């Protein structure tokens, strides 16, 4: 335990300031990012070589932003294990972003302005940037979603107790909230509602919390307080009890339990097994100008994803990601979630199942890497559900414009990915959530109609 406590301060000051995203204040400025690592440091890269099936690249350079959580691992590994260089991108740079809002600001200015060409995103940030919903002055900056970086590896954390000393433990706050509903509603009745937090609005973190609460019969807009919290303050707020719960990605659940700050109500792998999580998306102008280099990026990251999913590579992966220029936390903290080991706390049995941890290339439903249009459709439908987008939004038109699964297919074929590992359809089929609700991307309205709690 002491090594965790010793590294705690550093963790809070560095990864803590970035790992959980940012409050998206429109117009909030951020310093231009700078590269934090040299390509293929450590001499672990295979020699650069021409790429089979790939035409000459238009550039050897791309600047990709990332947030230091497992969702970015394939980008960091593509650099550190030399996959970018192998595919001709000898000047690819992965650049740590201080927060989601900073990533958004940096992609707005692009690499020409000292920013980034693209990188890792929560969903549906690329669509919201493309439509000018979350950009300065509502300027539309078209982006393409090109691949999913990972699935699962996120959860809902709850504080052990509130500021007034009320324990949140022992109240049945778990995946199914039916046993905790009366308690949570009683907090509102007493004038001090349950407070849940996210760090970037209208994307994964907020959407997981809202889905989980609403499935338990709790209206996130009326029965509790839902707030945006600057990422650097999330764990501090949880510790002093001014924030009762928040949605968080690995390795945070492990830390929250290890430091006895709180417990896990649920893993996202329990809410929606093999759910879509975060994605690689790049500015459309960059992709249109560099079609071969784009495919080289995808091929490099696909190879990195396969490398990440090999259990034999996970110890090296934890070691590489732990580096000061990357996640800046000890490999011991990164290892348990990579092995699917989660202490849930509050009397819940621990989880020890690699299939419930972060996965990068394949999961029980097939390809993790391929960007299903049906998943983009769910994220946008959920934005409509909660009034973040108008109900007149033409979801299909936005998805067809932003999602470039066709480029993924071309890159996969050039890389020699077996036919069996290339999805035949752009929809993964009917999705089923833990509460029995189903989502069919061919009929989002049927899903919206089936939900009891919604704004639309
Ligand atoms: Ca996440």
Provide structural commentary.
The protein is of the alpha/beta class. It has 18 helices and 16 strands. Strands 2-1-3-10-4 form a 5-stranded mixed sheet, with helices on both faces. A 5-stranded mixed sheet has the order 7-6-8-5-9. Strands 11-12 form a two-stranded antiparallel sheet. The chain is globular, with a radius of gyration of 21 Å. The relative contact order is 0.16. Mean pLDDT is 89; it is low at 1-52. Calcium ion binds next to β10.
List keywords for this structure.
456 residues, alpha/beta, 5-stranded mixed sheet, 16 strands, 35% helix, globular, disordered N terminus, binds calcium ion
**Class by alpha and beta content:** alpha/beta
Specify the biggest β-sheet. Answer: 5 strands, mixed
Shape: globular
Strand order of the largest sheet: 2-1-3-10-4
Q: Give the mean pLDDT.
A: 89
Q: Helical element count? A: 18
Number of strands: 16
Radius of gyration: 21 Å
- How much beta, percentage-wise? 15-25%
Cofactors, ions, other ligands: calcium ion
Q: Low-confidence spans: pLDDT under 50, at least 5 residues? A: 1-52
Could you give the distance between the termini?
Answer: 47 Å
How much helical structure, as a percent, in the residues? 25-40%
């Amino acid at each position: 335990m002491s090594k965790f406590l010793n590294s705690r301060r550093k963790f809070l000051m560095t990864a803590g300031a970035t790992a959980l995203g940012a409050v998206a204040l429109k117009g909030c400025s951020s310093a231009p990012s700078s590269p934090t690592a040299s390509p293929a440091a450590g001499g672990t890269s295979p020699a650069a070589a021409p790429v089979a099936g790939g035409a000459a690249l238009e550039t050897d350079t791309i600047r990709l932003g990332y947030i230091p959580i497992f969702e970015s691992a394939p980008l960091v590994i593509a650099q550190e294990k030399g996959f970018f260089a192998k595919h001709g991108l000898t000047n690819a740079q992965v650049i740590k972003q201080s927060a989601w809002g900073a990533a958004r600001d940096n992609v707005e200015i692009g690499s020409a302005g000292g920013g980034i060409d693209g990188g890792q995103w929560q969903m549906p940030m690329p669509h919201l940037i493309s439509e000018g919903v979350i950009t300065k002055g509502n300027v539309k900056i078209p982006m393409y979603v090109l691949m999913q970086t990972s699935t699962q590896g996120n959860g809902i954390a709850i504080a052990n107790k509130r500021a007034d000393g009320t324990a949140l433990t022992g109240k049945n706050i778990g995946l199914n909230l039916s046993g905790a509903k009366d308690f949570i509603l009683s907090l509102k009745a007493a004038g001090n509602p349950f407070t849940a937090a996210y760090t970037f609005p209208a994307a994964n973190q907020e959407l997981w919390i809202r889905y989980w609460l609403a499935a338990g019969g709790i209206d996130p807009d009326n029965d509790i307080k839902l707030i945006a919290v600057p990422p650097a303050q999330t764990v501090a707020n949880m510790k002093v009890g001014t924030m009762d719960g928040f949605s968080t990605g690995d390795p945070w659940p492990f830390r929250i339990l290890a430091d006895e700050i709180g417990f896990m109500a649920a893993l996202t792998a329990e809410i929606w097994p093999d759910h879509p999580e975060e994605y690689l998306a790049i500015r459309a102008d960059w992709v249109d100008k560099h079609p071969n280099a784009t495919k080289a990026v995808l091929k490099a990251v696909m190879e990195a994803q396969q490398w990440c999913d090999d259990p034999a590579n996970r110890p090296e992966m934890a070691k590489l990601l732990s580096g000061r220029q990357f996640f800046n936390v000890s490999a011991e903290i990164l290892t348990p979630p990579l092995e699917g080991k989660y202490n849930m706390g509050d009397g819940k049995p621990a989880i020890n199942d690699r299939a419930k941890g972060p996965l990068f290339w394949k999961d029980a439903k097939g390809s993790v890497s391929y960007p299903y249009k049906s998943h983009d459709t769910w994220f946008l439908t959920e934005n409509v559900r909660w009034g973040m987008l108008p109900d007149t939004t033409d979801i299909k038109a936005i998805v067809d414009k932003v999602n470039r699964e066709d480029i993924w297919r071309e890159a996969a074929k050039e890389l020699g990915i077996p036919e069996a590992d290339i999805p035949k359809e752009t929809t993964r089929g009917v999705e089923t959530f833990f509460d029995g609700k189903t989502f069919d991307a061919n009929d989002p309205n049927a899903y919206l109609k089936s939900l009891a709690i919604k704004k639309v």
